[in-house]
Design goal:
The complex is a heterodimer of chains A (about 250) and B (about 325).
Chain A lengths: L2 E12 L2 E12 L3 E5 L6 H8 L7 E6 L2 E2 L5 H6 L2 E4 L11 H10 L5 H6 L7 H10 L15 H13 L5 E5 L7 H18 L2 E5 L3 H7 L2 E6 L2 E6 L1 H6 L1 H8 L2
Parallel strand pairs in A: 3-8, 3-9, 6-7, 7-8
Antiparallel strand pairs in A: 1-2, 1-4, 4-5, 9-10
Helix pairs in contact in A: 3-5, 3-6
Chain B lengths: L2 H16 L6 H26 L7 H17 L4 H23 L4 H21 L1 H4 L5 E2 L5 E2 L2 E2 L3 H24 L1 H11 L1 H6 L4 H27 L1 E2 L6 H14 L6 H15 L7 H15 L3 H17 L14
Antiparallel strand pairs in B: 1-4, 2-3
Helix pairs in contact in B: 2-7, 2-8, 2-10, 2-11, 2-12, 3-4, 3-5, 3-10, 4-10, 8-10, 11-12, 11-14
The chains are: A alpha/beta (about 250), B mainly alpha (about 325).
Chain lengths: ~250, ~325
C-alpha cells in the first residue's frame, strides 16, 4: 500500500515544553487512521504541524512523497489535504450552500479567472450533491450560524470533503455532538469512505466512535507515540490503559 | 438582493437622476459631494465591511487621488488618463499598505493606517515644489468628454453620477463573484479560509488595494468638483468621517456607504440652525444608533423587514433548532 502521508521524527517545542516529541507514522491510501490520547498529549499540535498551521521544530512531513514541511496551509490544501477543526469553524454569516462553494472555489482555476467566472465558481451542483449527501437539504439556504451545533459539525465535515481531497484530517469530529447526530456523522463518514475511497486521519476522544470508524489506531501520550495497532489491540494494550487511567 | 431591495435601489436610482431638477446650485454641489464620498466610502466598505481590515487611511487615498489628478491635468494630461492614473497609483500604494495587515489586526492595524494618513498629510503640506504646500493647487479644470463640457454644476453632477454608477456596478459584480465570498471569509474566519486553500495573504492585499483605489478614484472626481485642493482637506478627519459613514450606513451592506454618505452630507445642513452644536448632536445621534443598531441604518432596516416577514410567514420548526452546548 502506498503512503499518502509520511510523518518522520516530528518534534514541536514551545519554549521549554515539547508538545510533540519525535513522532513518526505513515498513513496508507484508503485507510482510516485514528489518533487517540489523553488531553494535552499533542494530538492537535501534531495535526497543526502536518497541515502547516504550525512549523515543526524538527522532522519532516510528506504528502504523496512531496515534502510539505513549512508550506502554508492553503498550499497544502491545494495538494489535496483537507481538515476539520476541534472547535467549530464554519462561516456563520454565509449560507450552508455558500460555505460549501467557498470550500471548493479555490480549487477552480486561478484567482483571476475566478473573478471573471461565474458567481458560484461552477460549484452549485457539486455543493447541492454535498448538501444532499450530508442530509442538509432543508437547511441549504440557512445562514450557517443559525444551525444547531451538530448540524454545523456536519457542515464542517462536508466542507472538508467539498474539493474532493485525497486525505482528510478530522480533529475531534464528535466533540460536543449528541448521540443521534454522532451516529449520523459516523454513518456519513463511512459512506463517504466507501464511495470515494478517501483516506482519513481522525483525532477523537470518543472511543466508541474511533473503534467503530478506524482500521488502525495510534496512541499519543506526553507528545510521544506509545502504541499502534488495530482498535482491538489498542483496547487491550497496558500502556494505553495506563496512559488513560494512570496507576 | 430580494424584490423589495431591488425596488428600493431602482427608486433611489431614479431619484438621483431627477434630483437636479428640484435643486439650486448649492444643492447640486452637495449632491456631487455625496457622489464623491459614496465612492470613497464604498472602497472603505470593501476593505473594512467585507474583508474585515480596519483602515484609517481612506482619506489619505482620496488626497493621493485628488493630487495625482490635479498634477497630471496641470501637466496637460487628459482627464480620463489622469482618472485612471489616480486609481492605479492608489492601487499600488494600497497594496503596499496592505502588508502590515498581514502581520497586525484590529486596533493595531488602525494605528498603522493612521500613521500613513499623517505621513501623507505631511508630504502634501511640506513638499511645496510638487503639491504647492499649504497653498494647495488651484485652477483644476472640469473635464470635457467627447465635446460634452462638465463645467456647469448640473452637467458635473451627471458626470460624477455616471462614474459612481460604473464603479458601483463593477464593485457589485466583483463582490458577487467568488472574490466577494473570499473577502467575507477573510473577515469571518481567516484560519478556516486558509485551510480551505484561500490565499489569505493575496486576498488581504487585494482588498486593501481595490478599496484604496476606489478612494483614489473618489479623489479624482473631488479635484475637478472643488477645483481647488489643499492638504487640510485630507487629514485624519476625512478618514474618520468616511469610517463613520461606513458604520452609520451599515458596514458590510453593499449600499450602506451610500446611506452613510447621505447622512454625512445632509445632517450638517439640516442641523445648520443650531450652528456649532451640530457636531455634538451628530455625535449623540451616532452613539444612540450604535447602541441600538451596531449594524447601522441598513442593519436596522434589515431587522425591521425580517421582523415583518416573520410575522407574516413564520419559519418551519426545523429552522428554530436550538444550539446544543458543546
Amino acid at each position: 500500500m502506498t503512503a499518502v502521508l509520511e510523518v518522520a521524527n516530528l518534534r514541536k517545542s514551545f519554549g521549554g515544553i515539547t508538545a510533540v516529541d519525535g513522532v513518526s507514522f505513515d498513513v496508507h491510501d484508503g485507510e482510516i487512521l485514528g489518533i487517540i490520547g489523553p488531553n494535552g498529549s499533542g494530538k492537535s499540535t501534531l495535526f497543526n504541524c502536518v497541515l502547516g498551521q504550525l512549523t515543526p521544530t524538527e522532522g519532516e512531513v510528506r504528502v504523496d512523497g512531496k515534502p510539505t514541511t513549512g508550506m502554508r496551509p492553503c498550499d497544502i490544501n491545494r495538494l489535496g489535504v483537507s481538515r476539520t477543526f476541534q472547535l467549530l469553524q464554519v462561516f456563520p454569516q454565509l449560507s450552508v450552500r455558500d460555505n460549501l462553494i467557498l470550500a471548493g472555489q479555490e480549487h477552480q482555476g486561478s484567482m483571476y479567472s475566478r473573478l471573471l467566472g461565474p458567481a458560484d465558481a461552477g460549484l452549485n451542483s457539486a455543493a447541492g450533491q454535498m448538501i444532499e449527501f450530508f442530509r442538509l437539504t432543508h437547511l441549504a439556504h440557512e445562514q450557517a450560524g443559525m444551525l444547531s451545533y451538530g448540524q454545523q459539525k456536519l457542515l464542517d465535515a462536508a466542507m472538508a470533503f467539498m474539493a474532493g481531497p485525497r486525505l482528510v484530517l478530522l480533529d475531534e469530529p464528535a466533540g460536543g455532538v449528541n448521540l443521534t447526530m454522532l451516529g449520523h456523522l459516523r454513518e456519513r463518514l463511512q459512506a463517504y469512505h466507501a464511495e470515494r475511497k478517501a483516506t482519513f486521519v481522525v483525532i477523537e476522544h470518543q472511543m466508541e466512535f474511533v473503534m467503530a470508524l478506524c482500521t488502525r489506531v495510534l496512541v499519543l501520550a506526553e507528545g510521544r507515540l506509545i502504541a499502534e495497532g488495530s482498535p482491538q489491540e489498542i483496547r487491550r494494550n497496558p500502556a494505553v490503559i495506563e496512559a488513560y487511567l494512570g496507576h | 438582493m430580494n424584490r423589495l431591495g431591488a425596488l428600493a435601489v431602482a427608486a433611489a436610482a431614479v431619484f438621483t437622476v431627477v434630483l437636479p431638477l428640484f435643486l439650486k446650485p448649492y444643492g447640486i454641489y452637495l449632491s456631487s459631494t455625496w457622489v464623491v464620498l459614496s465612492i470613497a466610502a464604498m472602497g472603505l466598505n470593501l476593505t473594512l465591511g467585507y474583508a474585515g481590515q480596519v483602515s484609517l487611511a481612506q482619506g489619505a487615498f482620496v488626497g493621493i487621488g485628488a493630487y495625482t489628478t490635479a498634477l497630471l491635468m496641470h501637466a496637460g494630461v487628459p482627464y480620463p488618463i489622469a482618472f485612471v492614473a489616480a486609481g492605479l497609483v492608489c492601487f499600488v500604494v494600497g497594496w503596499v499598505l496592505g502588508y502590515p495587515a498581514l502581520r497586525v489586526q484590529h486596533h493595531y492595524l488602525a494605528f498603522v493606517t493612521l500613521a500613513f494618513t499623517t505621513l501623507v498629510f505631511l508630504v502634501l503640506r511640506n513638499e511645496e515644489w510638487l503639491t504647492g504646500g499649504t497653498y494647495g493647487l488651484s485652477g483644476i479644470p472640469r473635464p470635457t468628454l467627447f465635446g460634452w463640457s462638465t463645467t456647469g454644476a448640473v452637467s458635473f453632477y451627471y458626470f460624477s453620477l455616471g462614474i459612481l454608477t460604473v464603479l458601483t456596478a463593477g464593485t457589485w459584480w466583483m463582490l458577487r463573484s467568488p472574490w466577494g465570498r473570499a473577502f467575507l471569509a477573510l473577515r469571518e474566519n481567516p484560519t478556516r479560509a486558509l485551510s480551505l486553500g484561500l490565499d489569505t495573504r493575496r486576498y488581504t492585499l487585494m482588498a486593501f488595494a481595490i478599496g484604496s483605489s476606489l478612494g483614489g478614484l473618489s479623489g479624482a472626481v473631488f479635484a475637478p468638483l472643488v477645483q481647488y485642493i489643499e492638504p487640510l482637506s485630507f487629514t485624519l478627519n476625512l478618514s474618520l468621517n468616511l469610517l463613520l459613514m461606513v458604520i452609520v450606513g451599515g458596514s458590510g451592506f453593499f449600499f450602506g456607504p451610500f446611506v452613510g454618505a447621505l447622512v454625512a452630507v445632509l445632517l450638517p445642513e439640516w442641523l445648520r440652525f443650531i450652528q456649532g452644536y451640530y457636531l455634538v448632536v451628530y455625535a449623540v445621534m451616532v452613539m444612540v444608533m450604535m447602541a441600538f443598531s451596531p449594524t447601522g441604518i441598513l442593519g436596522l432596516v434589515e431587522r425591521f423587514v425580517k421582523a415583518v416577514s416573520v410575522r407574516h410567514d413564520p419559519p418551519e420548526p426545523v429552522l428554530q433548532a436550538k444550539r446544543t452546548s458543546p
